[in-house]
Design goal:
Radius of gyration: 14 Å
Strand order of the largest sheet: 1-2-5-3-4
Order of helices and strands: EEHEEHHE
Oligomer: single chain
Shape: globular
Number of helices: 3
Distance between the termini: 26 Å
Helix content: 25-40%
């Protein structure tokens, strides 16, 4: 499922990734480090939203991981209870750069 929209020279698209619960924390860390992710939505296998996390692409990667450390701990606890998880990733790219 991909969705595109343009706003002030900014391109936004959405993708879904399905991972095992045990891979959730590592995959979220990787997504944060990519830098163009503006929002993460964690859903269970039935599609119910468990957690929605807005991210600011401007934040430095190291600072983002430090600030989001409590979130990563919570994700680890949640992942232990889930077998499959869907991560909806909303990415943005500034077309003017």
């Amino acid at each position: 499922m991909e969705e595109e929209k343009e706003k002030k020279g900014e391109r936004t698209w959405t993708e879904q990734i399905e991972v095992a619960g045990s891979e959730l924390v590592e995959r979220v860390k990787e997504l944060i480090q990519e830098g163009n992710v503006s929002r993460l939505i964690i859903r269970n296998a039935d599609g119910q939203t468990l957690l929605e996390v807005p991210l600011t692409p401007v934040v430095a990667v190291g600072a983002a991981l430090t600030v989001l450390y409590p979130l990563l701990v919570a994700l680890g606890a949640m992942a232990a209870l889930l077998t499959r998880v869907k991560i909806e990733v909303v990415r943005t790219k500034d077309e003017n750069r």
